[in-house]
Specification:
The complex is a heterodimer. By secondary structure, chain A is mainly β. Chain A has strands at residues 4-7, 10-14, 19-25, 32-38, 45-51, 56-59, 62-67, 72-77, 86-93, 99-101, 105-110. In chain A, the strands form 2 sheets. In chain A, strands 2, 4, 5, 9, 10 and 11 form a 6-stranded mixed sheet that branches. The model of chain A has no long low-confidence stretch (mean pLDDT 95). Chain B is built from no helices and 11 strands. Chain B is globular and about 40 Å long. In chain B, a hairpin with a 5-residue loop joins strand 4 (32-38) and strand 5 (44-51). Helices cover 0% and strands 52% of the residues of chain B. Classes of the chains: A mainly beta, B mainly beta. The interface between A and B is medium-sized, with 24 and 22 residues.
Chain lengths: 111, 116
């Protein structure tokens, strides 16, 4: 089955700096890669996703890149703000199958 | 759009009690629903996948007779923790997804289950 590895497990940055979270996957059939943000005690929420037919997608301060050959994808957050502090999960999914989640990255943005 | 409602949000009950958790998609038809268990500061552990009108597919190590899942309609799935014990105490989250590949999951708010 699919295996998703996510790094780092914790990340601390100063407000205004950029944050990068990286994930690798093992199943070449995976073609959909969502990223979720989970604030403490709340539900995971989709923040951005990318499909295998594109290499990069951007939404304001958030961007995701995908390298299908290397089987890795990354989340980039620029101009970080304290409200970006949360746990971020990457996931990989093949067609209509189940998503396999990474172990999560706890991001702390220091004011 | 894409709202998923999960109830109850918090349950405390005695050991041996059975607890039912509901997961509803409010504004879309959920072909597939997922049930997760999440321990503090840990990732989402998939317990089972359910498709409307068919039996749930359980992940390895999850007791299907312990965690009963019913997906009777395109908007409702239920998880029943039967004869719950303290070790079943956890945070349970459902998610729902529409038809077709490349669709995101929409999560409920979760249920914190505490068994005394």
């Amino acid at each position: 089955g699919e295996n998703v590895e996510q790094h780092p497990s914790t990340l601390s940055v100063q407000e205004g700096d950029s944050a990068v979270i990286k994930c690798t996957y093992s199943d070449s059939a995976s073609n959909y890669f969502p990223w979720y943000k989970q604030e403490l005690g709340k539900r995971p929420q989709l923040i951005i996703d990318i499909r295998s037919n594109v290499g990069e997608k951007k939404d304001q301060r958030i961007a995701v890149t995908l390298n299908k050959t290397a089987k890795h994808f990354s989340l980039h957050i620029t101009e970080t703000q304290p409200e970006d502090s949360a746990v971020y999960f990457c996931a990989a999914q093949a067609n209509a199958g189940k998503s396999t989640f990474g172990d999560g990255t706890t991001l702390t943005v220091k004011p | 759009g894409a709202v998923v409602s999960q109830h109850p949000s918090w349950v405390i009950c005695k050991s041996g009690t059975s607890v039912k958790i509901e997961c509803r998609s409010l504004d879309f038809q959920a072909t597939t629903m997922f049930w997760y268990r999440q321990f503090p500061k840990q990732s989402l552990m998939l317990m089972a996948t359910s498709n409307e009108g068919s039996k749930a597919t359980y992940e390895q190590g999850v007791e299907k007779d312990k965690f009963l899942i019913n997906h009777a309609s395109l908007t409702l799935s239920t998880l029943t923790v039967t004869s719950a014990h303290p070790e079943d105490s956890s945070f349970y989250i459902c998610s729902a997804r529409g038809d077709g590949g490349g669709q995101p999951q929409h999560f409920g708010d979760g249920t914190r289950l505490s068994i005394l």
